[in-house]
Amino acid sequence: MEPIRSVTGRLAPLPMNDIDTDQIIPARYLKVTDKHGLGAACFSDWRYAADGSPKPDFVLNMPQYQGAQILIGGHNFGCGSSREHAPWALMGAGFGAVVSTYFADIFRSNSLKNGLLPVIVDEETHKQLISLAQEDPNTQVHIDLEAQTLTLPDGRAVTFPIDGFSKHCLLNGVDQLGYLLSLDDKASAYEGANSARINTHAMMQG
Amino acid sequence: MFEKVWDQHVVAAGAEDMPAVLYIDLHLVHEVTSPQAFTLLRERGLKVRRPDRTLATMDHSTPTTPRGLDGLIPVTDVQARAQLDFLIKNCEDFDVPLYALGTENQGIVHVIGPEQGLTQPGMTIVCGDSHTSTHGAFGALAFGIGTSEVGHVLATQTLLQYKPKTMAVRVNGRLSPGVTAKDIILAVIARIGVGGGTGYVFEYMGEAIRALSMEGRMTICNMSIEGGARAGMVAPDETTFEYIKGRPHAPKGEDWDRAVEHWRRLPTDDGATFDNEVILDANTLPPMITYGTNPGMGMQITDRVPDPDKLGDVSAKMALDKALTYMGLQPNESLLGKPVDVVFIGSCTNSRISDLREAAKIMKGRKVAEGLRVMVVPGSQRVKAQAEAEGLDRVFREAGAEWREAGCSMCIAMNGDQLAPGQYAVSTSNRNFEGRQGKGGRTFLASPLTAAATAIHGVVTDPRTVVGERELA
């Protein structure tokens, strides 16, 4: 994974609350065996009409929001299914960060493992960002992962929370699996002290 | 109880800025969220650490159409076929047991774990599926994970987790006839909203929960995620032990006695505190139904659709406006009497034998309303076989319903089973999101009893009006 230090870019406002992962990437696109190529299907049902043509009034189709790197969603962004295809699709659609007042747990965890920054801001900042993006689509904000700040065009920087472990992994471009693999001895010790109650192989043999 | 199970599985303790490392007792795998994880293992030259604690099945992208003359379920979707074939190859290469499509133990991942006796109290259980919370009905700590985490668990049998907070969901009193576990959980989610449980593990407790069967408890825990909680748990008791005993993977002989002794120590101690609490009265609870586009938009079946203009909060008003537009509903409209196009009885929420028995109780000797499509989809091949042994399939078929092969079916609409744009369905599944049951499809979530009552009349129907209280009790 490439290290991530910051995201600077324009904002695409999608301020609905409770945007679920079925909207971010509908289930019919999940019959894939890799992570790539999901960007075109991101928000497919909101983005395209029945004949496949782009709906002009959807934010991702508006010319002024093309190339936006930061999506602003409403409260509880990413609720519903655990599909990691949701952050894969958002990244495929060109986003490096999503801003909301809070995120659904699994979506947040999945995003952090892929380098899509889930940035949590207070209600007031959230409202301000939506207004800024709607009034001037050229508004740029700067997200600094090291400092954990989002800097608005007026220079005001608001801090956002991120757990230290995920931050370390993102800044250094290391995935979390390496850490778990390094604890092999501890896992073995646990297995030694706690005998398994089940064996899924058993039924195969009998 | 959550704390006990958590503590018993810590491989490495966490800190404020460091997640704990938890040992995973059982890892369930399906075709849709695992391919990229197996690819990761191949790229890194890793093995599956504990294939004996891993079990794969096929459920999400599998058709539920009738078997061919060869006895096999035909998969005509090329992409789905490729995904299923990749799972077969992955299970062969990594020595993971697989319940392949159409074989006797295959079924929805959250139906087969408990059915096989693999789901046991005090265990940690994960799967790349948010409805893994189902298994919490046994007093297991069970939650959905992403595909990266599926890779972590395959490779190390461990998972990084920050400790969630706890919320007690207390359901006092007794359910009235015609009211089910599904109505309890729809009422809980309507109360707290789809984000209300974010960051929490629920523990369901109280007289009404104790009185439920294991299958009812599974229905409730299943939908914890629809309230935002990754996991929901019910303390194990005699009902739990009775359910597990004698199942293929249940402990036997002395092992059984030792296991039960351990399980009896799991329930939350008297005086333990929770970070939050919700209280619901089962005595006054009627059947519930959703009217909107998330599971939190639910109401009593006799209520009227809420009016966005009466909401103070602007974003809540916007959300309700958008939902009602999508659903084609008017404020203050009653859903009772609303014509529907499809009734779907199935999904990991309500496709177990007791769900099918309840639906059959209403449909027996009656006919499905004209022009209505009714699909009954058993949760597993075993449920299907049992239902057929009890003659339930005949009840459904004679009523005019479709009796299908086991799978997720129309709950996820990625397997050929789906609504057409604009169609209305009463569905026993768990999600009414836009397009969840097919692009443009409109879902009313409800219990199997409500679904079956609706199947008979062709319009949304309160099950309490279809048959007498004695039949429903």
In a few lines, what is going on in this structure?
The complex is a heterodimer of chains A (206) and B (473). By secondary structure, chain A is α/β, with parallel strands linked by helices.
Q: What is the fold's blueprint, element by element?
A:
The complex is a heterodimer of chains A (206) and B (473).
Chain A: E1 6-14, H1 21-24, H2 44-47, E2 70-73, H3 85-92, E3 97-100, H4 105-112, E4 117-120, H5 123-135, E5 140-144, E6 149-151, E7 157-159, H6 164-172, H7 176-182, H8 184-193, H9 202-205
Parallel strand pairs in A: 1-2, 2-3, 3-4
Antiparallel strand pairs in A: 1-5, 5-6, 6-7
Chain B: H1 2-8, E1 10-12, E2 20-23, E3 26-30, H2 35-44, E4 54-57, H3 78-94, E5 98-99, H4 109-115, E6 124-127, E7 141-144, H5 147-156, E8 158-161, E9 165-172, H6 181-192, E10 200-205, H7 207-210, H8 214-222, E11 231-234, H9 238-244, H10 253-264, E12 276-281, E13 288-290, E14 298-300, H11 314-327, E15 342-345, H12 353-363, E16 373-376, H13 381-389, H14 392-399, E17 402-403, E18 424-427, E19 442-445, H15 448-457, H16 469-472
Parallel strand pairs in B: 3-4, 3-6, 4-5, 6-7, 9-10, 9-12, 10-11, 15-16, 15-18, 16-17, 18-19
Antiparallel strand pairs in B: 1-2, 2-8, 13-14
Helix pairs in contact in B: 2-5, 6-8, 12-14, 12-15
Give a written overview of the molecule:
The complex is a heterodimer of chains A (206) and B (473). Helix content of chain A is 33%, strand content 16%. Chain A has 206 residues and is α/β, with parallel strands linked by helices. Chain A folds into 2 domains: 6-173, Alpha-Beta Barrel (Aconitase, domain 4); 175-206. The model of chain A has no long low-confidence stretch (mean pLDDT 94). With 473 residues, chain B is α/β, with parallel strands linked by helices. A 5-stranded parallel sheet of chain B has the order 5-4-3-6-7. In chain B, strands 17-16-15-18-19 form a 5-stranded parallel sheet. The mean pLDDT of chain B is 95. The chains are: A alpha/beta (206), B alpha/beta (473). Chains A and B meet through α4, α7, α8 and α9 of A and α2, α3, α5, β8 and α11 of B.
